[in-house]
């Protein structure tokens, strides 16, 4: 728990007295920063509310409330209180070691036992802790210190890093300089179209009737026909032409252009086909934000390209490209969308690719910090020099009582009904509307009537229910109505769960040195291959397996590599597994779930997992830190890009403030979770419910 005011005053100097020496001995004033891959924490028992659109107020959290705890405790129809389930589960698992079953397991049998407690349609499953998803080990044995992560979403900033190493910032909402207009073609200048036909074409264009057309006699000579097509295209933007044959006559048919053709025709020459812009968002998910932008522009989300998803609970900046959408239209969104700003517009020839990023720059503020200056310095120095275990963080598995990897397991088992029910079933922690909607479906199984009971933002549930309403009992068909990104989210979560478990066992049993049979992908080789999967906090860049092929370490080469070159595979049909005892761990973990790690192909392509590789230990780059004293726990300690553009200033720091905050910056490769670096620093659980319990108001 956070220490007293006296403790922090005596043990930590003010920022005015404190600077950090760089490795070369120079003094660096350490400010700013940004952060990306984790959606945890929040503020508990806050009463202040602010209007921030669909993102909610900054005081809102993924809270595990006292009311929720009380509700869980009442679910005792089977004689086991939910407060005791965790302990009894732990006891049961521990006792299984007596008969040769490892305690690493979060067993399917335990999950099944808990899931059966549904007399009132509410599962007694608790929201996951780190140990539930295989996150158990640390790099250093240093003691941690206390601090609260994401007490405010303004405490977590994320800025994408471009391929050239520059950090992406929102600095302007100005439009790019316009290109000179092409000279307008006058009808009198037309050489190949008669005045009568030109008048008909003008009337057709004015009518905008896509069912009407005008027929023009076509010259026999191909070059002459081409000239007619070209002149009509120049003189009448919005019309399209095609040569047709009617009997023995060759004609040119002219019609109103289709929507896509119109888009292609009207885009000015001399500019790239894609508009690239910086997307700034606050307290919103990347995919939801792109969906909102697309909806307001009347476009499909698939027209937008971005490298990966950024944290929901934070202030983030990333690049986006979109095909032939004018920056004027994009800029107009700034007037109508809350907590979303677009700017830094430019034209480019190609869309963003999944490999178009070198990672993310994080600025993190830990509030209510306690611990001695020596502890803080030692922890930051260890994180800088030794790094952290590259676990998939808690946001990979969701913050609700039914983790994403449980659904992914059912999908890989091709148990479509279970997967659908896990998504739709009642669970603890829902608000009143969601709880009522889930309860109605669970008790009636009336999918059609249930759809409108779910809020609009529950698009996964509503998509599944629409499928079930159309074809009852077709659970696979219903699940296929969910967007591909979200379908992949679940199976990727299961891959991540297995990887975490095996990685913990590897570190626990064999330490942090390479061993014969390990898989090696040197960091310089991996840099160009560590890419987010096709688009997702959660979905895309969070998995991002390396696609390079590994080398199996032997006795002759073991001295050439360090633990930072060692990778472990994500289970998949194209993955190579370590040539040592670790391969057996994959078999053991997945057999308990009825799955075969050597057979990851499925009849349905989306659930055929190729696999990939992930470094087990990562060192952050460009690390810096500083301490702040502050009084107001609800005021910002750092400024985001948009804060700077608005001219905001900080007024929450003083030399004698009652609370202490640690601000630090670091850069991480794609798919690495900053929360796992923070976990290494603090030596505490980064799950949202635990962090909520630490909040100071």
Automatic annotation (TrEMBL):
Residues 387-619 form the TRUD domain. Residues 1-74 are annotated as: Disordered. It holds the Pfam family TruD. GO terms for molecular function: pseudouridine synthase activity; RNA binding. It catalyses: a uridine in tRNA = a pseudouridine in tRNA. GO terms for biological process: pseudouridine synthesis; tRNA processing. The keyword rRNA-binding does not apply. Residues 32-43 have a biased composition (Low complexity). Residues 14-23, 60-74 have a biased composition (Basic and acidic residues). InterPro entries: PsdUridine_synth_cat_dom_sf, PsdUridine_synth_TruD, PsdUridine_synth_TruD_insert, TruD_catalytic. One of its GO terms (cellular component) is nucleus. PROSITE patterns: TRUD (PS50984). It comes from the Eukaryota. Belongs to the pseudouridine synthase TruD family. This is TRUD domain-containing protein.
């Amino acid at each position: 728990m956070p220490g007293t005011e006296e403790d922090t005053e005596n043990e930590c100097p003010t920022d005015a007295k404190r600077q950090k020496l760089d490795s070369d001995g120079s003094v660096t004033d350490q400010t700013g920063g940004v952060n990306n891959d984790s959606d945890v924490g929040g503020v508990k028992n806050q009463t202040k509310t602010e209007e921030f659109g669909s993102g909610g107020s900054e005081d809102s959290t993924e809270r595990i409330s006292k009311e929720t705890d009380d509700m869980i405790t009442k679910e005792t129809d089977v004689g086991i209180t939910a407060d005791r389930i965790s302990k009894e589960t732990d006891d049961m698992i521990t006792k299984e070691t007596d008969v040769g079953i490892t305690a690493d397991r979060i067993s399917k049998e335990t999950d099944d036992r808990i899931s059966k407690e549904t007399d009132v349609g509410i599962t007694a499953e608790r929201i996951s802790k780190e140990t539930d998803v295989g996150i158990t080990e640390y790099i250093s044995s240093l003691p941690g210190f206390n601090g609260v992560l994401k007490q405010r979403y303004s405490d977590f900033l994320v800025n994408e890093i471009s391929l050239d190493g520059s950090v992406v910032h929102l600095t302007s909402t100005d439009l790019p300089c316009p290109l000179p207009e092409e000279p307008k073609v006058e009808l009198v200048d037309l050489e190949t179209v008669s005045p009568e036909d030109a008048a008909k074409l003008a009337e057709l264009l004015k009518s905008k009737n896509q069912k009407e057309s005008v027929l023009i006699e076509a010259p026999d000579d191909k070059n002459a026909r081409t000239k007619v097509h070209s002149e009509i295209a120049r003189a009448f933007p919005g019309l399209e032409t095609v040569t047709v044959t009617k009997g023995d006559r060759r004609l040119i048919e002219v019609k109103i252009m289709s929507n896509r053709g119109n888009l292609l025709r009207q885009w000015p020459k001399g500019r790239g086909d894609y508009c690239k812009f910086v997307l700034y968002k606050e307290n919103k998910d990347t995919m939801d934000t792109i969906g909102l932008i697309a909806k307001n522009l009347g476009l499909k989300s698939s027209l937008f390209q971005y490298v990966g998803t950024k944290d929901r609970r934070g202030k983030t900046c990333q690049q986006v490209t979109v095909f032939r959408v004018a920056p004027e239209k994009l800029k107009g969104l700034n007037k109508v969308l809350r907590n979303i700003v677009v700017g830094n517009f430019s034209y480019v020839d190609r869309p963003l690719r999944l490999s178009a990023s070198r990672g993310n720059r994080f600025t993190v503020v830990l509030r209510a910090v306690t611990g001695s200056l020596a502890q803080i310095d030692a922890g930051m120095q260890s994180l800088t020099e030794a790094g952290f275990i590259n676990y998939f963080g808690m946001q990979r598995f969701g913050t609700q009582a039914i983790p994403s990897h449980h659904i992914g397991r059912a999908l890989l088992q091709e148990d479509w009904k279970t997967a659908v029910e896990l998504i739709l079933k009642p669970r603890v922690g829902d608000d009143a509307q969601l709880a009522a909607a889930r309860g109605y479906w669970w008790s009636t199984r009336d999918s059609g009537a249930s759809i409108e009971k779910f809020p609009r933002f529950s698009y996964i549930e509503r998509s599944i229910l629409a499928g079930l309403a159309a074809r009852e009992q077709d659970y696979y068909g219903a699940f296929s109505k969910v967007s591909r990104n979200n379908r992949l989210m679940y199976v990727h979560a299961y891959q991540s769960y297995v990887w975490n478990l095996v990685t913990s066992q590897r570190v626990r049993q064999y330490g942090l040195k390479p061993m014969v049979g390990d898989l090696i992908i040197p960091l310089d080789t991996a840099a160009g291959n560590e890419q987010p999967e096709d688009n997702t906090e959660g979905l895309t860049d969070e998995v991002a397996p390396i696609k390079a092929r590994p080398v199996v370490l032997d006795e002759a080469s073991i001295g050439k590599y360090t633990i930072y070159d060692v990778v472990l595979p994500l289970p998949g049909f194209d993955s190579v597994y370590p040539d040592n005892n670790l391969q057996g761990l994959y078999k053991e973990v997945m057999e308990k779930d009825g799955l075969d790690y050597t057979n990851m192909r499925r009849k349905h392509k989306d659930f055929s997992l190729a696999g990939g590789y992930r470094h087990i230990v990562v060192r952050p780059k460009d690390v810096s830190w500083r301490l702040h004293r502050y009084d107001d726990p609800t005021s910002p300690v750092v400024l985001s890009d948009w804060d700077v553009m608005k001219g905001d200033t900080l007024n929450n720091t003083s030399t004698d403030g009652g609370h202490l905050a640690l601000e630090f910056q670091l850069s991480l490769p794609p798919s690495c979770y900053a929360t796992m670096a923070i976990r290494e620093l603090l030596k505490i659980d980064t799950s949202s419910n635990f962090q909520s319990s630490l909040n100071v108001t």
